[in-house]
Amino acid sequence: ARFRARAQAAGFTAEVPDDVLLAAVRLRFRPGAQGALSAADMAVLPAAGQNYPR
């Protein structure tokens, strides 16, 4: 739930499954990242919300 909320605040607002949302965030901010949701995935989102307007 926290990941989705942060992603939405950063402009990722599509109603998609969690794995698709994670893939979209990674394509934008962490290309090449794999595996389960990690702290590094969460860390990019607050900065994304501040630096990238919707």
Give keywords.
single chain; 54 residues; mainly alpha; 61% helix; globular
Structure report:
With 54 residues, this protein is mostly helical. Helices cover 61% and strands 0% of the residues. The chain has three helices and no strands. The protein has helices at 2-9, 18-29, 39-51. The longest helix has 13 residues, at 39-51. The chain is globular, with a radius of gyration of 10 Å. The termini are far apart. The mean pLDDT is 89.
Write the layout of secondary structure elements.
Layout (H helix, E strand, L loop, with lengths): L1 H8 L8 H12 L9 H13 L3
Helix pairs in contact: 1-3, 2-3
Protein name: N-acetylmuramoyl-L-alanine amidase
Organism: Pseudooceanicola lipolyticus
- Which segments are poorly predicted (pLDDT under 50) over 5 or more consecutive residues? none
Radius of gyration: 10 Å
Q: Hey, roughly how much beta strand do the residues contain?
A: under 5%
Return the structural class.
mainly alpha
Distance between the termini: 20 Å
How many strand elements?
0
Counted by DSSP, the helix tally is 3
The largest sheet, given as strand count, sense and whether it forms a barrel, is: none
Name the helix and strand elements from N-terminus to C-terminus, one letter apiece: HHH
Protein name: N-acetylmuramoyl-L-alanine amidase
Organism: Pseudooceanicola lipolyticus
